[in-house]
Design brief:
The structure is a single chain. A seven-stranded parallel beta sheet has the order 3-2-1-4-5-6-7, sandwiched between helices. A six-stranded parallel beta sheet has the order 10-9-8-11-12-13, sandwiched between helices. The chain is an alpha/beta fold and 366 residues long. The two termini are 14 Å apart. Helix 1 packs across helix 15, helix 3 packs across helix 4 and helix 12 crosses helix 14.
């Protein structure tokens, strides 16, 4: 676990940092970059953000970082390396911080070498990589910063030296999610009956997030559970297949695709339960947000998820890909309001104690 003692690093002098984020959408990882830039700016440091033209993060970070749009075409765009190196030479920062894997590493590390600038990289995913690639790619960086201890252990198992890999947990702005539910607004937004319990899942519609397992689990509930509706928040290439699975299982009246929302601070606190049956997950920002909102969670025991969901404290953990166990734990919570309330209160405490923005910023400064 990261050392959360307060640090005086960065108060000695102002540091100029270039952040490289190649994602085009303002998902969880991009939000962490903005939290970090906000915290660095408050501490008197100078942030620059390199991102693709039109990336959503640019507008979010504009008040705390100077934005530098740069054409970044993905993992195969090797021409991005000299473009980024030229940008770094012009800006002359003290450090490059690489945040996104798509077209960012190893390109970011190579560009930093060409520009003569040290670099660090944040790793947000827990998928394994070949040992030869780990040895080759991460030598480009002075440190690898993992957003969960689960990801750190993956890299250690692949041969990285422990002193070169540090964990700095992702953060959540807990105050933004600690708000009362506007029940009439919520029910009207999503067409819910007043007596229906609301189950949510917040994730990209891609196979590794486990939506198909959730649908199989819901089909097993039948009439054993109280009346409920499931809202699937997010977008992605898997939507058509999931809609077909939902309809084939006869869940059309219970499961709705709610799309991408930029107002989760208003939405999450109205959920009775959040489900996240992912097969792989670096940490899971939506789980942090749900915990901060006081929502109990049922999730898979994968990646960094157990660092947020403590089994039988603020939710239940099940094995990935087990719809029977998932259905049983969902049913347990739907049928027990006092357990939902106890898990929710504990989750809020855990979010406040271990995942503050200040702790994340100080960890990155160290």
């Amino acid at each position: 676990m990261p050392d959360r003692r307060s640090s005086d690093i960065g108060r000695v002098r102002s540091v100029r940092i270039v952040h490289l984020e190649t994602g085009r959408h303002y998902y969880g990882g991009a939000r962490q970059v903005v939290y970090l830039c906000e915290g660095l700016a408050r501490r008197g440091h100078e942030c620059h953000l390199v991102c693709p033209p039109g990336a959503e993060i640019a507008a979010e970070a504009a008040s705390v970082a100077e934005i530098h749009p740069l054409r970044l075409g993905g993992d195969l765009d090797l021409a991005a390396i000299p473009r980024l190196a030229a940008c770094l030479k012009r800006l002359a920062p003290d450090l490059l911080h690489v945040h996104s894997r798509r077209g960012a590493d190893p390109q970011g590390g190579i560009a930093a070498r060409l520009a003569g600038i040290p670099a660090v990289v944040s790793r947000r995913v827990d998928n394994p990589e070949p040992r030869w690639l780990v040895a080759l790619k991460y030598r480009l960086y002075a440190r690898v910063i993992t957003i969960s201890e689960g990801i750190r252990q993956v890299l250690l198992a692949e041969g990285m030296a422990p002193e070169r890999v540090v964990t700095v947990l992702s953060a959540v702005d807990t105050s933004a999610f600690e708000r009362p539910c506007e029940r009439d607004w919520f029910n009207g937004q999503f067409g819910l009956q007043s007596d229906a319990l609301a189950i949510g899942m917040v994730a990209q519609l891609i196979p590794r997030k486990g939506h198909a397992v959730l649908l199989d689990a819901l089909a097993r509930l039948g009439d054993a559970a109280p009346p409920f509706r499931v809202l699937l928040f997010g977008q992605g290439p898997g939507r058509a297949a999931l809609e077909a699975q939902r309809d084939a299982l006869g869940l059309g009246g219970r499961v709705s695709f709610a799309g991408f929302r930029d107002d989760l601070e208003r939405v999450l606190g109205c959920l009775d339960l959040l489900v996240h049956p992912a097969f792989m997950e670096g940490l899971g920002v939506s789980l942090l947000q749900a915990a901060a909102a006081g929502v109990p969670i049922v999730a898979a025991r994968a990646g960094g998820i157990p660092e947020i969901v403590h089994d039988r404290e603020n939710g239940f953990l099940v094995q990935p890909g087990d719809p029977d166990a998932l259905a049983a734990r969902i049913c347990d919570l739907l049928g027990d309001p006092s357990l939902r309330r106890r898990f929710g209160e504990r989750g809020r405490d855990l979010a406040r104690e271990g995942f503050s923005v200040d702790s994340m910023v100080e960890g990155n400064l160290r």
